[in-house]
Amino acid sequence: MSGEEVNPKAYPLADPTLSTKILNLVQQAANYQQLKKGANEATKALNRGLAEFIVMAADAEPLEILLHLPLLCEDKNVPYVFVRSKQALGRACGVSRPVISASVTINEGSQLKPQITAIQREIEKLLV
Predict the structure, then answer these.
(1) What is the DSSP track for 48-98?
(2) Does the first or last residue of the chain, that is N or C, have fewer Cβ atoms within 10 Å of its Cβ?
(3) How far apart are the first and last CA of the chain?
């Protein structure tokens, strides 16, 4: 992990262990077509009530382009979390470009449901 300072507005920030879990889940969600990539898609998923949780990159430049998402998440009662790297988030999303934000979407019969619930709980602990 790089030792660069993370923008203090990027709260809550997942620690490396949780980041790994989140990125693994994002990767699986991509395989199950349960992933929306990018701030616009994440915003739409939230507005449509489809988001299980939102992952944002703390190194997005400028971070302000993402900061409407936490507000929206709080409105909709959706857990959200920052990971350090947009590069890593992009890789987890299965694209070669950096991704500054992603939404794992709801799918009732999904095999990912238990993992999604576990991650939501871990994110909620950070927000206390």
Answers:
(1) TT-EEEEEEETT-SSGGGGTHHHHHHHHHT--EEEES-HHHHHHHTT-SS-
(2) C
(3) 25
Mean pLDDT, residues 121-125 taken together: 95
The count of domains in the chain is 1
pLDDT at 53 > cutoff 50: yes
Question: Which pLDDT score is estimated for 4?
Answer: 65
Distance CA 48, CA 99 (A): 21
Residues 111 and 81: their CA atoms lie apart, in Å, by: 22
pTM (two decimals): 0.94
* The token pair that represents 78 in the structure block: 């959706």
10: in domain: no
Q: Give the structural domain span for 57.
A: 16-126
User: How many residues can be counted in the chain?
Assistant: 128
